[in-house]
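Revision sheet: structure tokens.
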Amino acid sequence: MAVADVYDALRSARVYKPAMPREQARAIITEGAGAHFDARIVAAFLLVEPQIARIADALSDPIGDAGMADTDRRPSARAT
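Predicted:
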């Protein structure tokens, strides 16, 4: 679960950071094999990562992701 969570966090845009390119996210996960992550889990993840990337790309919100760093998406303090 940790590998998928880290991959998602790296590839997703946040208000405080842009999305990381796929190749860079893969490299970080690969470098963590045996240290931060179980090497067997990383090996299995890398086998299916192309499918995960295709699904993520198909489901991404290019408008929302692209403008996320410039937009504060927190609810207004006046919202009830």
